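Risk register update: the risk that structure generation would not scale has been downgraded. Supporting records follow, first protein first.
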Amino acid sequence: FNVGPGVVRHLILAGHDVHVVSGAPDFVFTSEIQSPRLFIRKVVLDCGAVQADALTVDRLASLEKYSEMVVLCRASILATEVEWLNSIKADLVVSDVVPIACRAAADAGIRSVCVTNFSWDFIYTEYVMAAGYHHSSILWQIAEDYAHSEFLIRLPGYSPMPAFRNVIDVPLVVRRLHKSREEVRKTLGVEDDVKIVIFNFGGQPAGWKLKEEYLPAGWLCLVCGASENQEIPPRFIKLAKDVYTPDLIAASDCMLGKIGYGTVSEALAYKLPLIFIRRDHFSEEPFLRKMLEFYQGGVEMIRRDLLSGNWTTYLERAVSLTPCYEGGTNGGELAAHILRDTANGKNYVSDKHSGARRLQDARVLGYQPQRVPQNDILVPDWYTPAYNELGLHN
């Protein structure tokens, strides 16, 4: 099981043992879940995106690392995972969204399901287009691995994922609040008339420092992910690494950070305006941004203004917004219900419309991947963007 705590908690509440396979720190799960039914196994089965810096992905390095970690060691990984799955007598494998986990489940004779808003075949397609067709076999292997899953539980803000045979959509998966806004502010010693921005920006640029003058009068900043030796100026509050961030998000007036599913989902759920910095080569970002802006909850900050401390205009714009997301936030509970039924043998979907669904999913409205001229050989057909005049110039 490799998926977030929002789903794990509901499965444990339903009486299931859940084995989490993850390289994430234990507190990511234990801050939300305290149960003898939770088992954490420290294993990393993919590498995600390798970042050149806080805002840019190194596309070639990402492909090379995936090849080194997963492709070259594939037989050994599968043998180890199959043996482990059999040893714990697993009934279902759930992944977010590790490709080889689906194949390991199939080899062990166990059903698998993915829960995600993006998949790595789509993300790596852009990297292959930029880095060269000799890495294209990675895409096909990932897509084939995903095809072993029973279906995809698809989260809002999703990108194209045609490798999956069937899809079930659920609302936002968000972590519940433990404390009220008033309780959090009282603990921090912050008066009601003080504005709070939560700085949720892991991997800050090297050599860059926060400065008090970045904040306008009457503002405080809560800093997530600061290193132990990082100096924090007045009116900035360093948060502990294992702090439960949903409570602090709900107690703030806006958030400054990068677009990712967890950040966007909790910003929308708690109606907190998000000031975001656009990142390079994060292919899932446009879809999450579209959702964020549709619900009037986003303000884009230019990168140079972040680094130069020109924050005031963006903070004032953010607190003037009224985010209007009124959709469900019980995606974790619904996903857990679906997974529980699947583990018990229920069939949720059929292949009747899977071909048409895949074609539709490959053409998500309003977006096409950027073409890298003369460097897109052997990219899977469903991801090849159409030529147009604007595309040629780009």
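Supporting record for the second protein:
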Amino acid sequence: MKSSVLSLFLLSIICTTSCGHGEEDSFPTFSALPIPETLPFDNLLSFDYYNQRCPQLEQIIHTKLKQWVAKDHTLAASLLRLHFHDCFATGCDASILLNHEGSERRAEASKTLRGFQVIDDIKVEVEKSCPAIVSCTDILTAATRDATVLLGGPYWRVPYGRKDSRISNVKDAEMVPSGRESITTLLELFQSRGLNLIDLVVLSGAHTIGRTSCGAIQRRLYQGLNGTSSMPNPPLDDHYLDFLQRKCRCASGDYVDLDATTPTTFDSQFYANLQKNMGLLSTDQMLYSDPRTSPIVNSLIGAPSLFIHQFSASMVRLANIQVLSGLDEVGEIRTNCNFVNSYNT
């Protein structure tokens, strides 16, 4: 009964920005979407921001991204992770893309991030058509949406108008969850960024795709959560644990799928895996055991389409964290995503 009530509650808060499943060759264009009567966000983001100044933007992003993912499908999941790291550190401002000594990108926590070349390639093409108009932040946000669609996930409308940060500090990368936090710590982190309990559970579902290195899960496989036990805590299914220990025994540089069942498909199987004690990361498995999050997990297991729709809404909320926009904000439109404009040569 609780699960049914929660499912109805989740459905009631689904954002109108979700447009259901999108086919990889049928992305809605600016002209095909209704223009809202008022700006949808207080910080001056809008769905029609580039309608006149760069109407071909979404087609450029989609075409380029499709080319990259065709060559390496793992890049789609990498872009979701890159976008999350950017937004969770200091807000969605492309600070993760700045490539200089002491930047977030050079931090230890950022060493496994990928997808920078994809954004650079898209940016070059966009600059040819719309010079100094489109921010790197908006490109990363839209590319993340398109990457999700290419893996079978939902399409959602992206409001535009973000600017790029001129600052990036290595210490800010430490603010991104590492996969070893408690649910309480995670919830506090999410709430501090304007996200809620549902966003925590739903955005964790991005682990339905992607991989992590064996080195990143050594502690989980052999030392447990607090390092005092030889058994994983929270627990792992015995057969799954045996597989992981065999795979990761000798090569910490090998990679393991975050979703052991359907690793290349964007679906709700991630949550069903938790029910079977097959959550690869400690923080993922704890979503099923913590009384605050387990009812949401059960609802998503029971209604797979609920995850697809709510993921759209939570991604829009994520992409709206502390954005730089408007005439009086500190920010710029970088012409090269790797450097602030004053550094360009």
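Confidence is low (pLDDT under 50) at residues 1-9, 11-40. On this basis the risk owner (M.S.) recommends closing the item.
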